[in-house]
Amino acid sequence: MLRWLSLLIALASLAASAKDLTLRTVQQSGSAVKYDPDGSPPRPGLCIEILHAVEKADPGLRFSGLDQQVPLKRVERLLADGLVDAFFCLLKSPERERQWRYVPVPLYTIRHVIVQRADDPRNLDTLAELAASSQRKPVLVARGTVLARRLLAANVAITEVGSEREALQMLTLGRADVIYGQDINLLRHVAENKLGDKVKLGRTVFREDSQFLAVRADLPAAYEGRLTQALRRLERDGTLRQLAEKYR
């Protein structure tokens, strides 16, 4: 009897996963590594590639709303208000976890690093040293990010900017001395703008974090289960690792 019951449950789960399901999402503006509307077809952005890999892993699953590009703060409001169902990719923080849930499969890892001008002789290896340096010129950091909040919590004076590209322009013009950001983003912009001889990466990794798929707080458990299963499949077959390496 138990065997038949288990079989029926398994068949019901399989039937549910075969049903067509469309989840609402958006693209994040100002983050070309994650979502790059101007990128070439082979490199549309890491998070959009992960999204399409999920659709391929679960052919009945689709995402709508990719024609919308909104800033990070707006992404957070949409998730908190339940106006989008899912968003690729977000870092975790206690404040965020009170407002929505995260699918428990890491998408890729980022490292917190700094960028300085190439002729800056200082080694800033701790948040305390960054805080002291920031009293002269605030540290540049992407607007509205978890990184910005962590710097403020460490008493680092910051100036929030719209993108890493903007931050690098300010740095090379001498309007700031330090950028604090995600290695994968900063390295891409340094390479694209041919700034390798003008700026340098600091020698310290201040922290490592994983990006996750975020879902609205009241998303049905069955929907989250489908997302989790698809991402587990991509984790096992190496797709998530391969995509992350493609953008480093």
Question: Please, could you describe this protein's structure?
Answer:
This protein has about 250 residues and is of the alpha/beta class. The chain contains ten helices and twelve strands. The protein has helices at about 1-20, 45-55, 70-80, 95, 125-135, 145-155, 165-170, 185-190, 220-235, 240-245, and strands at about 20-25, 25-30, 60-65, 70, 85-90, 100, 110-115, 140, 160, 180, 200, 205-215. The strands form four sheets. Strands 5, 6, 7, 10, 11 and 12 form a six-stranded antiparallel β-sheet that branches.
SSE layout and pairings?
Blueprint: H1 2-18, E1 21-24, E2 27-28, H2 46-57, E3 61-64, E4 69-70, H3 72-80, E5 86-90, H4 94-97, E6 100-102, E7 108-117, H5 127-134, E8 139-142, H6 146-153, E9 158-161, H7 164-172, E10 178-182, H8 183-192, E11 199-201, E12 207-216, H9 221-236, H10 239-246
Parallel strand pairs: 1-3, 2-4, 8-9
Antiparallel strand pairs: 5-12, 6-12, 7-10, 7-11, 7-12
Helix pairs in contact: 2-9, 2-10
